[in-house]
Structures are given as C-alpha cells and as structure tokens.
Amino acid sequence: MTSCVAKPRASALVFGVLLMRLAGALSLMWSGGLSAAPKTDVVILINGDRITGEVKELERGILSYSTDFIGTINIEWEKVAQLQSGQLFEVEMMDGTRLYGRPESLGDQGSLVLLVEDRGGERRVPLDETVRIAALDQGRLRDRLDGYLSLGWSAAAANDVSQYSLGAGLTYRDPKRLWDLDYSGSSSESETSPASESQSLEIEQRRFLRDRWFWSGAGALQTNDALGLDLRVLLGGGFGRYVIQSAHQELGALAGLAVTREEFSDGTSQRSLEGILAASYDLFKFDDPEIDISADLSVFPSFSVSGRVRTDAGITVSYEIIKDFIYQLSFTHTYDSEPQSAGATESDWTVVTSLGYEFD
Prior knowledge:
- By secondary structure, this protein is mostly beta strands.
- The chain folds into two domains: 41-138, no CATH class; 142-359, Beta Barrel (Outer membrane phospholipase (ompla), Chain C).
- The chain is built from one helix and 23 strands.
- It has a twelve-stranded antiparallel barrel with strand order 12-13-14-15-16-17-18-19-20-21-22-23.
- The longest helix has 22 residues, at 10-31.
- The radius of gyration is 23 Å and the shape is elongated.
C-alpha cells in the first residue's frame, strides 16, 4: 500500500481557474437573460418574523430566498412556519412524490397550501415532509449553479516530503436532472521516493424519475502512478434510487454497466466491460458551525478479466470557518484485486487537508 497526496500538474491548476471563470461567465451571461418573478412571496418564520421576497429553491434543508434590501439569504427550512407564493412550484416529498402547484395563500403553521395544477384543488403539504422545492417560473442558470475550489499543501523537513492537492467541482440542478463535474489531483514527493501523482476528472448526469428513482450516465478520466495507470477512460450508466431523502441526509444507490479503456505504465493497454455497484451518503448540518459529511463507495466487478474487482471509496468532512470558506479533511482509497501493470500495487490511499471556497 502506498500513500499519495496532492500535487497538481500545471494543467490541473489551469483547469481549476478556468472552471471558476466559466462558472462566473455563465452566471453573468444568464443573470439578465430571463426576468425574475416579482418579489411578492411571503415567508413567516417560527419566531413570527415576516419576510417578503422571492423563493429561489429549497435544497438540502436550505431555502434560498431573494430580497430587495439584503440580497439573497439562506433560511433553514426547519425555521420556516408558513410560505405563500404566486410562483409555480415543483414540490418533492420524502417519499419521492412530486407535486406541481402554487401556494397562493398562507396555510396553518407547519403546512403548505398548494393549489395542485393537475388536480384542480388544494393539497396541504407538511413542511417537515418536504425535501425539495424548485420555482419553475424562474430559470436563470446562475440560480442553479453550485461549485467549490479547494487547495491543500503540507511539508515535513525531516524527510523533505512535499504533498499537494487540488479539488474543484461544479453542479447544476433543475427539476428534471442533475449535472455534476468534479476534478481532484494529488501528488507527493520526497528525498527517498520519486514523485507520485493521481488525477481524476468525472462528469455525471442524473435524470430524475418517479418515486425517487433516477437513471445516470457518467464518464471519467483517471491516472494513478501507484497503480501503474497512465490513463483510464470510463463510460457507463445505470439506474438508481434515493433510499433516504430528508432535510439533513441523503442516501442513494445505483447499479449499472461501464466500458473502460486502460493504458498502463508498462506499455500495455486493455478494454474491459465492468459492472457498477455504487452508493453515496450525505449528512448536512446547518446550525453554527455548518458541517457536511459525505461518503461514497463504487465497486467495479470485471466481466472481461476473471476475478478482477476494482473499488473506489472516499469520505470528506467539510467545516465552514466563515461564510463560504471551508476547511476540508478527506480520505480516499483505491483498490484493484488484479493489477494489470507489472510492478503496480493493489491499493493506494490519500489523506488530504485543504482550505476551500464554495459559491452558489
């Protein structure tokens, strides 16, 4: 087992900068393109405060709410007692049910009175069973973009070890689909061992279906010196389901197939058909301090190489130091039961601490 922690190539740094610039450019391009709904929505908090503005979305237990005087604010959903709006909402419940309607009048405390479009009547929706709201009357791209950029570095004088990391991501979500783009790069070098690098660029689209089901299509580019992998190209997809959805946690699972092409450091290459078994879990806490814990596991049993099984696993803890600036601690582990490159190890792991910035 070898350890490898972060040093991005120059191209990795360029990628991170370009990603941030792209997000900013897209946000500016779309910010004025579509007119926003009038700020006549009303939110009443459990302490009795009344706020007039415009509902943007409810996601991960946070209501994004635009106001004229203090800009966009984030309100913990548990602090909302009543909500009124003339906008058309898509409301998703814990059990996966989706409703479409307008909450044009205030209901009882703790409920949303939704004029359901396809049923021609009212439905009272408990707020504590609501996990997601999308305002369909407004669709500016910048309101649906989230992203992050993180950098890590450490050094030890005793053995002249230098370790670096770079991470960047961009997420777009609308009522029907999710796009997710993630990059991670890591490297370490010392007096006694050569530099060792690993990089991964992944993109996924999820199309939401009924009853918390979804289908997923994904692609990835990966390199890992410790595993003797010069390049892996992966294309795959499958069906999955959100097993748990609430204001504080989300658990999803997926099964599917993938085709891969691998180029190894000993000059050989290989094409494979693999299965995909994956699970991901998020736990988020919004009271001060804001904490987010995410874990994922992917298993790739090979149908082309007998007995070969690959796994990718990771866990990340994010702690908000001040608004939008975070401290991260992450652990990742990669395993290959049948390394296809001469001299490659079966597993590689990284531990990275970094500082990052989140934007939405």
